[in-house]
Amino acid sequence: CSLSSRNIVAFTTMTELDDSSGKTRGCHVYVADLNMPWHAHKVLSNKHNITALEWDLPGDKLVMADTAGNVQLWIFKDHILNDWILIGSAYFPGEHILGAAWFHNGKKTGLVTEKKDSIHYSEKFNHLLFAPSVRQFGGRAAEGVLVVSTTGMVGAIMITKDLQNPICYSTESLGNTRHRITAVDLCYGKNGHFLVAVSSGSICLPIRCFRVLVRKNDDKCTITSQALPSFFLQDGAPKDNSCTVVTHLKFVVREDADSLVIAANSESGGFVEVWELREKSQPVHKLFQPKTLEPFKTVVWQYQSQYRCQSPVTAIATTKLSIVTTLPPPSYVIIALADSSVHCLNRLDCLKEVAFSSLNTSWRPDEPSNKYFKNSVSIAHMDLSWLGCVLLACDTQGNMYLYKLLPDGTTGTSMSLSYACTLLEYCLVTGLDWLDILLCLRSSMIEALCERLDVSFNRQLQSTQQYHYILFLSIKTSLYRMLVTGQNKAADLSSLLMIHSVATAFKSLLRPSDLISHDKGPAESLAVVITDVITDVDKVLLHLDPKEFTVEPSTLQSLQQLIQWVADLALNLLARLPEQRMQVKTGGYELLKDHKALNTVRELLVIIRIWGLLRPSCLPVFLRSADNLDVLALLFCLLSKLVQPNGDTQQQVDDGLIGKSEIHRVHEDIMTTKLAIKHKDSLVLKENRLHEKNYTIQQSRLKRCEHLSLPWSTLSVFVVYWLVFCPLIWAICYKFAYWPSYWSFLFWAVAFLIWIVIMCGLIIFWRRFQVEQSFKINAISKYGSDKERRPLSVHQILSEDSKFLGTKKWNDFHESESKIVRENLRRDLPPLVIHKQISGENIEDTDGVVCVEENEKTHLSIAGDYAQKSPLQDYLKLVTVSPSEDEVKSPKTPMSPRDLFFIDLIHEAERAEKSLKTGTHFFPSETTENDSAETVKSITNGTDMENVEHRKDVKDTKNENVKDKEDNKLKSKRESNECCLLPNQIMIPQLHQGNSITAIVSPILFYQNLPLQLEYGVEPEQLVFTPEMNLVEGCMHSGQIVDTIRHLYLGRQPLLVKQCTRCGGKAQVQNMTRTAAIRAWDQRWTRACRCGGIWRIHKASQ
């Protein structure tokens, strides 16, 4: 088995995994992602046994060599995990390949130990000098493989990028003569050479080392091999005539050629030795000594330590990558014995055992050990991840085991927060996969780790942040995705990543005109204009040059889905705004508080506005209640209210706007009650009158307490301090014999200063208390009580309303008022009544009767000044349609204002269709109502006329007092309150889907009893996780799978899609004819998902 730098495992089997009869005997190579190991995909089937299986450094290519001398190079097809293509193959007849290693690309980054606490990444991580194994023209690193066979042959296979001859290869002998080899290992030298260590198996023979250099000449490659010092093992020849055989050779670090681990087995057990390559001064006879005094130095192998074990060694694994630059680097040596035990040894501590595990011990304490006793099972091969956090082992029965390891150089029993942050930063700089780090984290440290990583990243230079921005968001998203409470933060970070990518793609299509300086392109000009305080999107266009934003219409049409996603995101953000203050304040990232991201959305809306003039069909599509509603202009206006230009990089949302939205949420609750009562044809809610009296009494008590609190508090403190506390302290201190005379004056001076401090604190506390009391008084005067009122049941309302609906006085008044109103109706408007809440137009009645429910207005007057200041006061007078008898039915479940609103639309549409068939015409009203000049025209379901006239007088008086304030704030209030009204104006589409995912790295992992028992081809039910998202009220749920890259609807159960192995996101596999812009967008996400995961083909039948 072999683990890649992207945490993909490749392993071999003797039969196919789904073969239970053994008919497919041979050698089969499979690959699987560690996050979903039950989805294993076959790469090839081979007749001969595979003896070498290695990944390249980027983790995209795989080399396979067998006992017959065949070497094959494979690569992902279109970066799909379960789709492979053959690059090329080489055949070495009669050669049994033992080992293989890819050419080094010359890229090596290390953590500088002395500067590990430095702020900047450029100081903490250094690009170390490391030459590529093979250089091409211009010094570019070549790709290829170096193999070694049992006869001492070394071969080089190099990829040429030529379609006719994709590879070229050459061979050479390691030594002057061929000799038999049973164990081999290869590592990289910093000068671009390979260091090869070989053994002939016998302990009586030395361990030979060679320096191999590969060079490219034209279209061919040449190999040069040079012998290095060899050594014998410390034990030497056995004295008891036992057969001791060298079985394994392994360099301690793949990029460090100074240390070598040798494992040998005998009949009684085995042992492991560590040897290091050192410079040693050799004495030289004085006749041959040079004139200089410098000693003659040679490189020799020196014995370091040994570890003996009772069973033979079956497998050995060492560190692949050294993160720190210290010499010798900290590393582990892990050995597996024939008794199914695994031992972890510390190389720097003389091979001291730091951990132990065995397959024969019980995995769980509540189950007997004999259930897992497998005496015949032994580990055949092991491999460490590139960061050294997990160990993968394969046994002889077709089982794979994954162990969590304590990383090198750490102390304790778990990974520390600082070391985890350093590892994630190392992944950020080098591009390595961080899945093995996530497997070693604790749930309690993830939020602190996110904050620490965020603080460290924000301290970097602007250029460094831009370079690593996408990968940083991917790492942070994967961390929050491991928490049950972090799913919304992960969704916000995914949206932020997509905003950045869409903005980059859109701005790359803009071309500056010839008259504009090339130093300042269209994107920069737009960013400057966006910083100004402009809430009208059309006014922004006046400051821009239209030539700079001109794009081909065909290109714009191909980007329609991305344009639609930007508009859907803006809708979701604004619809979530009223609920933000209601939620518990938690740490972490929130997109609504990121003013930089919101300004980017505003820039995209401006670009979309301009492109809509060029190609109207590319504009986003909305389901809205009014045809004349300009959604893009409304979104831009509301987003402009959320951010304050020229602010900090992490600016907070305008609290006043959120407060207004909260007030309007109370307004919306009142509207819910009104609409429900309208559908029951009732307005009698007598319980609220008793509440009004209680609110008046409570308000008077609060005012009385406000005036009396300060004097009484001051008097109480004065008495306690001056008459009790100070005399008591004075009496105690005066008894001391060494009390000087001047201390009395000092005592009372200090007491007076303390009294001043106490009074200042008391005044500050009283002022704060006074503010809170005034807030409560205003709240009671505006909204009543903080407690929710208990609505009357439907049966109570109907029984009380029956007394009023049967009176003759009411019927006569209703008929007279209806005749007056019918005379003012027009016949040129459409029949469908749409409740327009911000357009300023009147609300029409389909029956030709304008019925203003005054009793509803009476209950709204509980809100006091709030009802007068609301810009939706005309709407809250609620011109309704008198329902027929068949429509008066109780709803089965409580309905939201949005549900009742669309119920009205459906009823009015049905009436309009009936009127077209019967020839009946509707004459909607166009009369307007002014709060300060006009009075109520007709009253429906009122109680008595005197109370109505009294309330009208009170209302007129209040209108005169607040008229000046309303004129100044009416426009701003109307725009802010539209955040709450968006669900009633526009259908909010679902942006983030809470699709279930079955994977190891998820919040479910922290609640499982380890170890987990998994099976090939079967998704474990205990690992199914469905994230809980905070959905927007009234959001439209389609139930379809959405392409996470193109944002297309793929259907409920698409037959063939690409699925990410980390986040479970799905994307389209086959695309139609595409433009260059959308092709560039697809190529951005070809190699990996936006979360950094690997794509795999997913079929619905599976």
Mean pLDDT: 76
**Structural class computed from helices and strand pairing:** alpha+beta
Radius of gyration over alpha carbons? Answer: 39 Å
Q: Helix count, per DSSP?
A: 23
Gross morphology:
globular
Strand count: 38
State the separation between the terminal residues, measured CA to CA.
Answer: 26 Å
Q: What composes the largest sheet?
A: 4 strands, antiparallel
Strand content: 15-25%
Residue ranges: pLDDT <50 for 5 or more in a row? 369-374, 645-692, 780-814, 816-898, 919-976
Organism: Trachymyrmex cornetzi
Domain Mediator complex subunit 16 C-terminal: 1013-1096
Family: Belongs to the Mediator complex subunit 16 family.
GO cellular component, one term: mediator complex
Helix-strand layout with pairing:
Elements (H helix, E strand, L loop, with lengths): L1 E2 L4 E6 L13 E7 L2 E11 L3 E6 L5 E6 L3 E8 L2 E12 L5 E6 L6 E3 L9 H4 E3 L16 E6 L3 E7 L7 E7 L9 E6 L5 E6 L7 E11 L2 E12 L13 E9 L2 E10 L4 E13 L13 E14 L3 E6 L13 E6 L3 E6 L5 E7 L20 E6 L5 E6 L4 E5 L12 H14 L4 H5 L6 H13 L3 H19 L6 H22 L13 H9 L6 H5 L11 H6 L1 H21 L14 H20 L16 H12 L12 H25 L7 H48 L8 H41 L10 H12 L2 H15 L31 H7 L4 H5 L3 H4 L20 H22 L26 H41 L2 E2 L7 E2 L25 E2 L9 E2 L4 E2 L6 E3 L4 E5 L5 E2 L8 H9 L10 E5 L3
Parallel strand pairs: 30-33
Antiparallel strand pairs: 1-2, 2-3, 3-4, 5-6, 6-7, 7-8, 9-12, 10-11, 12-13, 13-14, 15-16, 16-17, 17-18, 19-20, 20-21, 21-22, 23-24, 24-25, 25-26, 27-28, 28-29, 31-32, 34-35, 36-37, 36-38
Helix pairs in contact: 2-4, 4-5, 5-6, 6-11, 10-11, 10-12, 10-13, 10-22, 11-12, 12-22, 13-22, 14-15
